[in-house]
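Hi everyone,

Forwarding the result from last night's run.
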Amino acid sequence: MPPRPVRVVSARESADRDRAAIDGGVPSRVLMERAGTGAADEISRRYRQQLRDGAVVFTGPGNNGGDGWVVAGCLAREGVKVTVVEVVAPKSPDAVARKNAAIDSVTVAHSAPEDAAVVIDALLGTGSEGQPRGKIAEGIATINRMQSSGSRVAALDLPSGLDATTGTHSDCVVADVSLSFGAVKRGSLLARDFCGEIVVLDIGLDDIAHPNDGRLPILIDGGWVKSHIPPIRYDAHKGMRKHLALVGGGTGMPGAVVLACRAALRSGIGLVRALVAPENVGALLQAAPSALISEWPASKKEIHANISSWADALVIGPGLGRTGETRELVEKILRDSKLPVLLDADALNVFEGDAKALAALLRGRPALITPHVAEFARLAGVSVDEVLANRFDIGGSLASSLGATVLLKGSPTVIFTPEGERFVVARGSAALGTGGSGDILAGIGGTLLAQTTDPATTACCSAWVHGRAAELCEYVRGTTLEDVLYALPRAWNESEPMPAPPVMVRLPAVAR
């Protein structure tokens, strides 16, 4: 049975999924038991050694506090010495019932023991908003002092004080692991450095059909990627592995095309042709000897010979330059070739505020655009702040109007299809935060577009592999894009183990 997709949700969407499960016949107390039991099992597995020195659970007034009482009871039954610091007494009937079931097996105290090695944060859940105050704020401060002193902190659902939708926070828990129930919260992906490792636990929300689930973004994981990457047969030749035409490399910018060529070759393309400004031909011949090198096409005949009749897919943009001449070049190629196309960087910038013209040129072909936030803002005619504030939603209308899949780069990367699907890729590191990383992504994406002709699959797999290669680089400071290129074969070929239920997915911790 294939694993269930992990959805990415806002606070309201999380509550709606809970309500749909309850209305569908799953009692709320059962959801709480599943959440607490799954969290306790993960904590016990992860911190078996540390739990010998005991655990302390900080509980709040809502259902998150009830989850904490379930965790406390489960750990106590395993023989762990558990102290519960009831920061605020439970208010919901389910949380009160879970407290009554666990209270005889734990110690209830007003303060945490100094030597507690494991701390469980069950103060606030996904519904909390605004700055924590009073006793809750004091509890968060205490947890963070303990974390600074060496205690391991596990947050239930997400760190208390972190907004589940926006990721904003003033005072929030700093967790070593966040145990997210049934889905991953948008806010957790936007504030990864406070969440530690994110582990999504199945609590049965997907047992009931949710009418809105089809419209929620899907988190892409290694299993999804491996199942969508086309295999390369043992007898494959360069024709079977497809041909990619790559147009870029304007004056003074041959390096972008070099990176894209090398990324394509390290991603399994059969043959790549780089078409660059005349003065860059010599540089490409030296830096990318495995590629064919041509000048920018000057006529329909050259477009036909070097692109349309030769390639299986086309990438335009890396190092292209933003001039009237380059817009004319992009328009000429797109008018005369209907190949599947990936547009990046200056191939998008030359259409600033003129997405309608680009849509006309893209019509009738599989198309993928890969803007970063500023490039998206220019093309869509909105502010950068608006893009950042609406990262999970803003690309849908542009994808629909262009008839193209939109890959909005960033942390996380969000992918929008013209049909309204959304995907999220939350892999990568700050090693990608340097000029040229997008050119590597373009080379990876061009290869997959040539081999699949599917822009959505291309976008999801390319972003994941690109991010995973960056994670495989041991350091951020001192790492170059050459290191990311060298890591690509391992990122393509490593086998990521399938998590054992109830774990749905694991996202690694990131540096703070």
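The CA atoms of residues 217 and 302 lie 42 Å apart.

Cheers,
N.
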